[in-house]
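anyone seen this seq b4? input:
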Amino acid sequence: IYYDTLVIKILDSQKFTALVEDMTLQHRHSLEVSLHEAIDTELAGLKQRTEQIDQGIHAQVRQEIDLVKQMLKVNSDKVTKENENLREVNRQEVDKLKDNLALLEAQLHNLANAPSGRSTTNQEVEGEANDNPQVQSLTTGLVTLTSRLGHLESKLPQVRSQIEACCNNKPDLRVELESRLEQILSNFSSPAVQTVTSLFVDREDFQADRQNIDLQLNMLRDSMIEKVKSESDSMNTKIEELRTALKERKNEVKDEIEPASDLAQTLRQSEYVEEIVKAALAKYDADKTGLFDFALESAGGSILSTRCTESYEGSSAVLSVMGVPIWWETNNPRSILQPGMAPGQCWAFRGSTGAVVVKLSATIIVKAVSIEHISLRSTPDGQISSAPKAMTLSGINGEDIFPLANFTYEKSGDPVQTFSFQSQRKLDTVELNVLSNHGHPDYTCIYRFRVHGDPAEDDKIH
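predicted toks r here
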């Protein structure tokens, strides 16, 4: 086993590069997930703080409303008590006036019925009343009391209506409460107004706070993105450094001249390398693809036609006897169904386009095809311009020909390139069409053509 060659192949493998890139993408995805989680956490905290502020505001408003209700109740009780006191005072004043009036009427009655020694006329009585100071005083008091009584009696209906309006027509509590709240809110020095003002903000302040929060979120997002980008750049730098180190290691492996036993001993220290080696060797033993080739000539595959494709006749090996050439070895289209892979052991046809029809060893559901060409290291100038490039695969069922897949052979890829596709047709004949090559002006070479798939249920081989 050439372990140095195997290590070089591993380092040049596209799967290794794809694995490193996949790890980078996974790390970047995890950073993006962390960013979204941080943003969601910040939004949830902001929402929770907003709900707490709302609950505090509602509690403050409820306390203020309860306080207003208590004040209204106290004021209502006070007004009721004052009304009762006023009615009692008015009642006492009226009773007092009535008593005075009754007293005056009694005195007047006594004067009218008092005994007299002589008969008098009305003019004489009046003259005596005018001459008597006591009678004159009583008369003046009676007139004054009569005037006050008339004034009180004129005000009595108004007082009664006020008392009835105050006692029987109490204002609606809701209206009173709204009026009281309006007075409180209009008073900017009120503790309730100051509390609500400290908790609430106007539209402009709210917009400013919202813009501030959006700015903070954008800054956080930009910071996280910048962090992800920096880590991604750092990871890419590390990948480039790793690639450079691998290339340097590859060159060192090429330049190192050490005993094979020492190199083998070094490689055996890594179980991972051993597993890769075993997998690579198992795949190489399984026709380099790990898939059965239904076009293999030794398994029953055959060439049916090359359409109008003209084979290219170049220089070839000559078998001679005593200097006399008796047989020239040439490669025909059957070469693409045989396992030989020595340089020049291929089917070459003129130009950059050609076709070949292959009879498979069994009826199968075609799932993939493999195209093989020699490696760049197997050519003297490091070029494989004669390798096919754009190709199509078609299925043939009697007279019907239908397309199955389009694919391109990359000269910078592995020597054996497998192209998979989806198909459910059962076929035993396929046609390969080459549409272009990688730049050779005279001919195109196909070293090996493989067809893979699943055998039909009614056509099992083994």
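The CA atoms of residues 261 and 267 lie 10 Å apart. The first strand starts at residue 302 and ends at 305. kinda curious what u guys think
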